[in-house]
Specification:
- This protein is mainly α.
- The chain has 36 helices and 3 strands.
- A 3-stranded antiparallel sheet has the order 1-2-3, with no helix packed on it.
- α3 packs across α6 and α28 packs antiparallel against α29.
- It is globular, with a radius of gyration of 31 Å.
- Keywords: Cytoplasm, Phosphoprotein.
Length: 756
Amino acid sequence: MDVGGNGGGLAINNKQRGMSESPDLEFDYADTDKWTAELSELYSYTEGPEFTINRKCFEEDFRSHVKVPCTFAECSCEAEVQHWVRYNIFLLLEVGTFSALVELLNMEIDNSAACSSAVRKPAISLADSTDLRVLLNIMYLIVETVQQEDSADRPEWRAIRDTFQAELGSPLYNNEPISVMLFGMVTKFSTGHAPHFPMKKVLLLLWKSILFTLGGFEQLQNIKVGKREELRLPPLPEDSIRVIRSMRAASPPASASDLIEQQQKPTLCVSQSLTKQDNLDAFNEKDPYKADDARDEEDDHDDNDNALETEPFPIERDDVMPPPIPHPPSERVSFPKGLPWAPKVREKDIENFLESSRSKFIGYTLGNDTNTVVGLPRPIHESIRTLKQHKYVSIAEIQILKEEEFQKTPLSGGEEDVEMSAIELLYQGILPSLPQYMYMIALLKILLAAAPTSKAKTDSINILADVLPEEMPTTVLQSMKLGVDVNRHKEIIVKAISAVLLLLLKHFKLNHIYQFEYMAQHLVFANCIPLILKFFNQNIMSYITAKNSISVLDFPHCVVHELPELTAESLEAGDNNQFCWRNLFSCINLLRILNKLTKWKHSRTMMLVVFKSAPILKRALKVKQAMMQLYVLKLLKVQTKYLGRQWRKSNMKTMSAIYQKVRHRLNDDWAYGNDLDARPWDFQAEECALRANIERFNSRRYDKAQSNPDFLPVDNCLQSVLGQRVELPEDFQMNYDLWLEREVFSKPISWEELLQ
């Protein structure tokens, strides 16, 4: 049967075998959830009573200024609400309402009296952000509704949509894109200068503005294909979105030997379970930020891995291997027909293979020559031919080579033709504040405060300003409702921040690799890697199946239906959905961010090892969703060679899952760790070298005033130089005699030395 809910459902296979088998989560990963779900998350349940007040104000004051649009009170179902919301929004855009809203929002941001009042208040509530919330609600409704295309839209609406999209990404509002203004609000809030800002609404509007102006994951794939065509690179070996959607979660059934062993050795299983639970408790007490060397504590590391297997695990079991038992025919292993990904090889991999082969068989090297194979055995020729067949040149590699040419030939290289796209304008807008880590630190501070693993601290920022009522609850039912609201509020913040970071990283990487590296390095320096690991150091299944929602209070359901009486039992039961769409979406986004930060970065990969991420990531494999498992397995693959032989031996099912689901890089010795296992790593040296390349790129492309003076034209004509009029300040002219005496007459000049 299929149970649908929140854009996804649960497909339960009636032929499941084994007590530990759990169903696959049929989760459709997309840019956003359904329109109604995204709209409902804009409003907290504490704001519910304001709907009636807003309707009354609209009917009395606003209708006289617009062409009589209807309100939700005149609708009988949610579909009608959606229809009239879309109609009214295009009506508002047609008369230029959004520009007026931006101006009003700017006035509220610059309202120093409200900021100073909020800073002095001991407790901030919804009442402190009423005007801001109204403006942000309208702006979010406009952006969220217009960014979702509808085939039934009129031609004039499509023209309005295209114009609005272009305006939103260009510096028309206050000489900067709307996203830069919202980033400024995030920074002002995180520094404590505006604690009354409704940060959830700001982050949601920031996310949807970036999504609308830059494009989502489908658009990213199309941009990537187009850029490869422009650079005359071979087409992509496959459509990654389609491949991931066709993958199934790894869930091997319990084998007959496991079942027989459990029946034959109950006492041993109980003692092992008790021992493992003790180890798990010890692991949970450890600080995930403790940077101990994983090699010095290899035994403890392995114990912790085993401790994570106390619950049935969909990927592997670390129990003692039983003696060989003949399996019945129904339990025969079925091998996959083919691997989902085409293997890839970098030019650097081919060079390294040839260098090692020449050193081994001939005794000399030829540098970067990948064509000369004289003197090498026939099998090496075959290997080189296979490697070249799967050679993949990325857009980033071409961009790096072009940047090196610009740096080598600053005069003869010519001017770079930079397309002023929406992502380029956004990068130029946030570039001045990135060196101070302002935007990245602000987002990560809010993410830390919203993470379920974070403990309340006196110095942490208050992210609940737009969910707490003026008067705190006095009954148990009100307290339960507020508790659900607060947890839901935090989950939505995590969802928005994870989506913003992932979209920016992906778009920057396509626009220029050094823009991506600049943002990624700021995230790394702001401790993004341990923060994400800390987020996953929880019962991730509980987080994904959390029921922090009250469906009857969601907008627009709550304004078109009569509300039933809420009870403590109904609040505890939650909704009927088998998993929470936003929480699974957030987890996948955070895993993708972690992959992007560590890919091809040896020092950052070693950070995963040092922070002991393997047991944390293994627990995330319990979530039977193919896309999430894929990104977990990717993170495990890059560090398997550094985890030691014992870890690989004890986790063969994980190794098998990596082989089946993750793309293969030919010549990558990930499963054995024989090539670079003992290579020393210097985090500071690697990051400094990368930072130098980034700064040269930013200086060349954006800092025209600070260009290298050695490459500026020089005027050598004496008449021209002396004929220039130089404006001297008044104080210098008044004290000219004193200056001559001090700087000229009183200083002896050795003409002989000067002439030499």
